[in-house]
Amino acid sequence: MTAKDWIKLGAVTLALAAALHFLILWLIPLAITGVFIRRLVKEAGYNHVVTRPLPTDKSREVVKPSPDLLYAACSFDIGAGPVRISAAKPPQGYWSLALYDRNSDNFFKINNSEATGERIELILGLAPRAGDFAAAFPSAIYVQAPHTVGVMLARILVLDRAEMGAALAAQASVRCDPIEARG
Amino acid sequence: MHAIIRPNISRGFSALLTALGVLIMATALAVASAWWLMRHPPSHVITSGAWRTNSLAGSADADLYSRAYIAVTALFALNRSETIYFEAVEDDDHEPLLARCTYAIAGKPIDARWWSITAYGDDNFLIPNDANRFSFTMRNLKYGPDGAFRVIAAPVPQAENWLPTGLGDGGFNLLIRLYNPGAAIVADPDAARLPTIKRVGACS
Q1: What is the radius of gyration, based on Cα positions, of chain B?
Q2: I need a surface site. Which of A3, A68, A74, B40 has the fewest CB within 10 A?
Q3: Residue B53 falls within a domain, yes or no?
C-alpha cells in the first residue's frame, strides 16, 4: 500500500470510530433502562406497580439504591392510551413520584411539599390532551411523556423505624392503571 | 483461467482482512474513548473538596457523556431541582478510598430538606456488614456539642457514627444525597459546604 492508501485507511478508521463512539454512548442509557423495564414487565407486566422492602446489600436491581427509601416502580406503556398514576401522601416525611424516559431522563417529578390534597393523581399520555381528562379527573395533573414506554419511580423516605408503618402504607397505595383503550 | 482467478481471490481476501482490521481498530478506539470521556465528562462536573456532582444528572439537557455515566453509576437520578448527588471516590488528599482503611468524614449539617451519607462498594451496591448499617441520615447521626458531626468509615466497629466499609480488599465510594437542597446550593452546588474526608490511622 502507498502512503496515500494508509492515510485513507486511517481517516476511514477514525471516522468509523467517531460514529461508533457516539452510538455506544447513546445506547448505554437505553440498554440499561431497557433491562430494568423488561425485568419489571417480566415480574408484573406493563402498568403494574412493583414494590420492594428497604434496600440492603442483597438489593441488586439498580446501582446505588438508597437504604433510607422505600421504592415502588412500574414500567408504563401508554401506547394503548393514557395511564393514571396515583398515590396517597404519607402524613409526614419525604415522598416523591418521578417519571423517567426510556433513556433514563427524569422528565417529571413531584414531591409531597409540591402536591396538594391527600392523594396525588397524574394522567400520563403521549399527546397534549389535558382537557380530555379534566372532567373525569379534576384533581389530576396531566403529564405528556416523550415516548410510549418509560418508568415511574416512587420514593418514600424512612428516617426512623417508627415511620415504617406509614411509609409501607404509602408505598402500597402507589398505582399505575390504564384508563382507556386505543380507539 | 487460473492465472486470472488467483489474484482476484487474493485481492478479495486482503481487502476483507483490511476491512476487519479497520472495524476492530475503530471499535477499540470507540469503546476506549467513550469509557474515558464518560468517566471524565468534558463539562458540567462540579467539584467541592473530594466531592463531585454532575449538574445535569437526571436532566433532559444532559449530554451523551453525562447521561451514560449516570445510567451506569446512578440510574434514575432525580434532576437537580429535586436532589443533588455528591460522589467521592477519593479522600481530601486525592488518594482512592480503600475499604481496609479508616476515614473521618467531618462536617456540619447541610441545607436541605433531608440529606444522607451512604457507602457503596466498588460494584456500586451497598456493602455487606454485620451491623446492617449502610448510611447515616441527618436524623440518626450523633452530633457534637458544636453541632458538627464526624462519621467514621472503617472496616471494623467504631465508638459512634460507624459507617462500615466491608472486609474486602478493594475500594469503596461515598454518596451524599441532598433532597430539596436550599436555593443557594441549587444555584451553586459548591455552596453546600460538604464534609472533609481524611484518612486516620493505619490501614488493616
Answers
A1: 24
A2: A3
A3: yes
Q: Which range of residues forms the domain containing residue B14?
A: 1-40
Same domain, yes or no, for B85 and B113? Answer: yes
- Contact B36/A at CB under 8 A: no
- The mean pLDDT value of chain B amounts to 90
Amino acid B6: pLDDT: 65
Nearest by CB: A57 against B58, B76, B128: B128
Q: Do A64 and B179 touch (CB under 8 A)?
A: no
- CB-nearest partner of B114 from A18, A32, A159: A159
| CB-CB neighbors (< 8 A) of A22 in chain B | 64
Domains recognised in chain A with CATH numbers: 50-178 (2.60.40)
Nearest-by-Cβ selection for B64 from A12, A25, A96? A25
User: Residue B204 domain-assigned?
Assistant: no
Grid cell in block for residue B70: 449516570
Confidence label for A182 from pLDDT (cuts 50, 70 and 90): very low
Assess A114–B contact: CB distance below 8 Å, yes or no: no
Above pLDDT 70, what percent of chain A?
A: 98
The verdict on B135 and B58 lying in the same domain is yes
Say yes or no: A67 contacts chain B, CB-CB below 8 A: yes
Q: Could you tell me if B34 and B66 lie in one domain?
A: no
| ipTM score for this prediction | 0.85
Closest to A89 measured CA to CA, from A171, A177, A175: A171
pTM of the model: 0.87
Are residues B49 and B31 both part of a single domain?
Answer: no
Q: Are residues B3 and B100 in the same domain?
A: no
For chain A, give the mean pLDDT. Answer: 91
Contact, A175 vs A86, CB < 8 A?
Answer: yes
Q: How many domains does chain B have?
A: 2
Is the CB of A32 less than 8 angstroms away from the CB of B177? no
* Domain identity same for B137 and B150: yes
Q: B64 contacts in A (CB within 8 Å)?
A: 22, 25-26
Count of helices and strands (H, E) across chain B: 3, 10
Hey, which bits of chain A come out as E strands? 50-51, 69-77, 83-88, 95-101, 106-111, 119-125, 141-144, 149-157, 175-178
Let me know: does B93 contact B99? Beta carbons within 8 Å. Answer: no
Q: Which residue is it, cell 389535558?
A: A130
